[in-house]
Amino acid sequence: MNPRIAIVCAGAIGGYVGAYMTRAHEDVVLIDQYPEHVEAMRGEGVHLSGLLSRDNFATRVNALHIHEAQGLSRQRPIDIAFITAKSYDTAWAATMIRPYLSPNGFVVSLQNAINEETIASVVGWGRTMGVAIAGLGVELYAPGKVKRTQKEAEGQVVFRAGEVHGRVTPRAELVAKLLGAADRASTTTNLWGERWTKLIVNVMRNGVAAVSGLGGPDQNGNEVARWAMIRLAAEAVRVGQALGYTLGSAQGLDPETLARAGEGDKACLDTITRQLLETAILRADDNRPSMAQDVLKGRRTEIDDMNGLVVARGKDIGIPTPANANIQMLVHKVMRGEIAPGMDALRAV
To answer: What are 278-331's pLDDT values in tens digits?
Structure first.
């Protein structure tokens, strides 16, 4: 019997993988708090579009409004719950789904930032797993409509499923298999290193997009934005290294080269600049990091869970992170309407 799957807060990433899992005939229910989105999924299904030809399809899905989740108590229990919520919604999302888990059911963080500890505080470490995502940019641009605005580099593994203890288990292999319906997936023995590596990408791109208003390709091509991105990433690399994480390639960028570039090494800066210019073509013209999407929609951002996490961990271990502290402050000002997004604001980083 197929596992019973729930996708909790099934917006952009949740709608994307949920559509693929549904089309692969998995037993999956998508739960979301956006009423119009749920009604659209129920009526017309999830419509995918984007850079890859295989992403252009629609499929009907089993969708629930969040207030209807209590009805799960009268159904077969949930074996795997994927949380795809914003980081600040992690605790309540895990609390909401916990009563409906099967005896061996577990919760998987399929999110930005690092939320496994929060999930474990609700369901326990033994019921907590994580997935690091690379090379997948998606946007919920209308109810029931998700577009992919970034494609992975050739041969890139998009989903890396891992246990918090670092061993490969049957359930990690199962999670990778399920996500493989959507794109390349594998298991990892280095979840924490994978998580921090993805955080490096998040901190270098999201805040810059929110403050500048630039989309993904323009971030790579604009000299001011590019230099801000490199300095933000360099600080995150140094904090991650000091914490003992084994860091991998940050979307094709070597972490040590990235750190030295941000510290002023000209040869490294030239290398990173060339790579950023070359990889801009992997992003659609309308590619917007999630934080820029949030600013446009007037939503709360994940700045405190991304750049703010680098700042907090750096403070704990005595590593200065001025660029990340500045971008965190600027995003809050943009959110409060104290400054308008633009290049003048970005120069303050």
So the answer is: 877 777 667 777 888 888 888 899 999 999 999 999 999 999 999 999 999 999
In sign, the C-alpha dihedral spanning 17, 19, 21, 26 is positive
What's the CATH number for 194-346?
1.10.1040.10
Of 269, 273, 270, 248, residue with least CA distance to 259:
269
The Cα 83–Cα 122 span in angstroms is 13
- CATH number listed for the domain at residues 4-189: 3.40.50.720
Spatial strand order in the sheet of 137-142: 57-59, 46-50, 145-150, 137-142
What residues does 283 pair with on adjacent strands? 150
| Residue spans of the chain under pLDDT 70 | 153, 284-285
Pick from 26, 17, 83: which is nearest to 46 by CA?
17
Give the type of residue at 148.
R
Answer for the pair 160, 183: CB distance below 8 angstroms, yes or no: no
Other Cβ atoms closer than 10 A to 122 = 18
The predicted structure's pLDDT at residue 155: 78
The predicted pLDDT at position 284 comes to 67
